[in-house]
Amino acid sequence: MIRVLLADDQSLVRAGFRALLDAQPDIEVAGEASDGEEAVRKVRELRPDVVLMDIRMPLLDGLAATRRITDDAALEGVKVVMLTTFELDEYVFEAIRAGASGFLVKDTEPEELLRAVRAVVEGDALLSPGVTRRLIAEFAARSKEPAVADVLAELTEREREVMALVGIGLSNDEIARRLVVSPLTAKTHVSRTMVKLGARDRAQLVVLAYESGLVRPGWLG
């Protein structure tokens, strides 16, 4: 059973998400929070698998709350998915940098929300389905200028290639087709790269791809 915490200051939004999630046989809503401070407290108390976290909330915003959660070693297994009203929310890239496993636009189709919750539990990052590549480029362009880092030194040539493809927004299946390998092989390369770099999840691998200079904004080939 996947346990989800809903963190949003709008009770109607929480009620809508709860109705959808609780109707699933493999998902349950473990709790709710109406501000960032309460969200952090509830996460520590309930230890959910996934937190659906609104970016803009009173007392403590979603970005700061996410940092507190992802910086707490005791909460290592908790995945945070940021919720935003606008596709180009200026805080989204910073949220991923802070450790969020991805983000969703609030008007996402119900099927996509359910897929997202299940995907992050399985270790996949969620970078806004349907607009992934454009958004990655947009947020990366706003981030600080990347510099080539020694962190890539321990990667094989194939792992660097795979990391670059992850960085431009390709899924494992798309990487497999690009490299003419099986999806399982592509997934294995991604996993090994994450382990070598100490990346929390796929979203942080994207951030590292930009910050290391391996990928630059606009490289969406």
Automatic annotation (TrEMBL):
Q: Which residues carry this modification: 4-aspartylphosphate?
A: D54
Highest taxon listed in the record's lineage: Bacteria
Q: What's a single GO MF annotation on this record? A: DNA binding
Query: InterPro entries from the xrefs?
Result: CheY-like_superfamily, NreC/VraR/RcsB-like_REC, Sig_transdc_resp-reg_C-effctor, Sig_transdc_resp-reg_receiver, Tscrpt_reg_LuxR_C, WalR-like
Q: Does the keyword DNA-binding apply?
A: yes
Residues in HTH luxR-type domain copies:
148-213
| One Pfam family named in its UniProt record | GerE
Name the PROSITE patterns on file: HTH_LUXR_2 (PS50043), RESPONSE_REGULATORY (PS50110)
UniProt keywords, alphabetically: DNA-binding, Phosphoprotein, Transcription, Transcription regulation
Q: Which residues form the Response regulatory domain?
A: 3-121
Under the heading Gene3D superfamilies, the entry gives: 3.40.50.2300
Is Transcription regulation given among the entry's keywords?
Answer: yes
PANTHER family reported for this sequence? TRANSCRIPTIONAL REGULATORY PROTEIN NARL-RELATED, TWO-COMPONENT RESPONSE REGULATOR
User: What's the protein called, per UniProt?
Assistant: DNA-binding NarL/FixJ family response regulator
